[in-house]
Design a protein that fits this description.
57 residues, mainly alpha, 3 helices
């Protein structure tokens, strides 16, 4: 039986792996599209915080 991704996403190690894998890519995309004025570091971090909150529901 395959595990649902939502079952593990909030475990610290799994979340860290997802963050480590995608945070730089997301930051680079936001920087490319909007430049530094959009504050891509904060926006990428906010996206991962929201991901954790949504999945915990």
């Amino acid at each position: 039986m395959q595990k649902d991704l939502n079952d593990d996403i909030c475990e610290e190690l799994v979340f860290k792996r997802i963050y480590d894998k995608y945070s730089k890519t997301l930051h680079d995309f936001l920087y490319y599209k909007y430049g530094e004025q959009y504050n891509p570091n904060d926006k990428a971090q906010d996206a991962f915080i929201k991901l954790g909150i949504i999945v915990k529901r």
